[in-house]
Amino acid sequence: MIELEALTKRFGTKTAVDHLSFQVRPGVVTGFLGPNGAGKSTTMRMMLDLDNPTSGTVRIDGRHYRELQEPLKYIGALLDAKAMHGGRTAYNNLLCLAQSNRIPEQRVGEVLDLVGLTAVARKKSKGFSLGMGQRLGIASALLGDPEILMFDEPVNGLDPEGIHWIRNLMKALAAEGRTIFVSSHLMSEMALTADHLIVIGQGKLLADTSMADFIHENSRSYVRLRSPQQETLRDVLHANGYTAVEAGNGTLEVDGATTEKLGELAAGHGLVLHELSSQRASLEEAFMQMTAGAVEYHAHGTDVHGADAPGPRWGDTTKGA
After folding, report:
1. How far apart are the C-alpha atoms of 141 and 135, rounded to whole Å?
2. Which residues pair with 75 in a beta bridge?
3. The whole model's pTM is what?
4. Are 76 and 180 a contacting pair, CB within 8 Å?
């Protein structure tokens, strides 16, 4: 388990992390989300004692990282795949890490095989593609067979097969009871991977909740109906206490209802339905809604002459046409 208590980091007058407290529990994949500049990388660096906090504490299974002997056996991390020594082979990069943590050499071959790099084990890592570098970084995190794993943008540079592989790997490791903490800007991938979410903005905790609850609490859910008898359907809905909003293309949207209730209501009045579907916002839409007030860097659309265009900004909650 990873425990943060009132963790704070200031760089001069800038507060990057502001009294951040949360726990990363074993047995689930915990996603770590926040806009650019939210303090995610600084937080993860403080977890590994790469940055000293201004105040507050981080504990790994009850101890500070610096107190761990042979730390790779407790926690493995991928923060920067480029941190590997480019002049060493993939095998020797991992061998150095293994020897410094008294990990048997045979484990090097095992993790290289696990991440699919056995064929290039004796090649220097400076010639690796971005995706191959990511796989080597993941291998280094897995080297000590730790109970806790941290990944920062683990799918960066991976092909579809690699993304599918790392997603299933993280889920399998969590199912074994390990603590998995992963940061990513790819909301679609996070939605498929994480069970629990920690969301921060401007260094402060915004949410510590399950994936399902986060989407439910930060987005609109509704039922969409489409019928050739739209006017009659609208009247029936109104008579039964439902407010139907016309959404174009002959569809109606109803809040505060279930597909079962509305389907039974339409059937009871002999109405034909061409569509009856429950609609829920994506993780991306819920994230944008939650963090709209905590986005530090806004991009503005510009036309070809450099003038500001009226396009949506990151952090806006409305969609562009």
Report:
1. 10
2. 148
3. 0.76
4. no
